Amino acid sequence: MPRLNINGRDLTVDVDPETPILWALRDTLGLTGTKFGCGAGLCGACTVHLDGQAVRSCITPVSAAQGRRITTVEQVTASEDRVGTAVHEAWVRHDVAQCGYCQSGQIMTATAFLKSLPAGQQPTAAEIDAAMAGNLCRCGTYARIRAAVADAARALA
Ligand code: FES
Ligand code: FES
C-alpha cells in the first residue's frame, strides 16, 4: 500500500498506486476540501501542492507522490501557514467566493504563487492573472480573486 506524507503526517493509504490523489484524499482519507470539477486537468478545482508546487490532483496518481509532500487546503489555511493564512484572510476580506466550488483550488494556486515570489515582492495585476489563469471560475469571481491576491501580497510585505 502506498505511503504518503499528507499535511505533515506519514500515512499508509489503502488505494491502488495509480489512483488519482484527489480520490485518495476525498474518498479514502475524508479530506473533502479538495474539489472535483472536470476530472481532466482543465479547471484547477482539485489543486493541491506537491513539494510546494501547485498540481492537479485529479490527474496526478498517488504513485507520483511517494517520497514527496502533499499539502491540501485544510493545511494551507491552518494558522501555522503564514502565506496560506494571509491568502485565506484576504479571500474573506474581499468576499471572493460566490458558489465557492472553485475556491479551494484558487486559494491553493494563489498560495503557491505568493510563496514562489521573493520576500516582499508585490505582483502586478498581469502577473496575478498569469499565475491564476489555469483556475476557472464559472461564477466569474476573477476581479475579486485578483484583488485578494494583491491584498495578501501587501499583507505579507
Ligand atoms: S478537477 Fe482537476 S483540473 Fe478540474
Ligand atoms: S465561485 Fe462559483 S465556480 Fe468559482
TrEMBL record:
Sequence ranges assigned to domain 2Fe-2S ferredoxin-type in this UniProt record: 2-76
Keyword Nucleotide-binding tagged: no
Pfam families: Fer2, Fer2_2
One Gene Ontology molecular-function label: oxidoreductase activity
InterPro entries referenced in this protein's UniProt entry, alphabetically: 2Fe-2S-bd, 2Fe-2S-bd_dom_sf, 2Fe-2S_ferredoxin-like_sf, 2Fe-2S_ferredoxin-type, 2Fe2S_fd_BS, Beta-grasp_dom_sf, Diverse_Oxidoreductases
Keyword field: 2Fe-2S, Iron, Iron-sulfur, Metal-binding, Oxidoreductase
Protein name: Isoquinoline 1-oxidoreductase alpha subunit
Lineage, highest ranks first: Bacteria, Pseudomonadati, Pseudomonadota, Betaproteobacteria, Burkholderiales
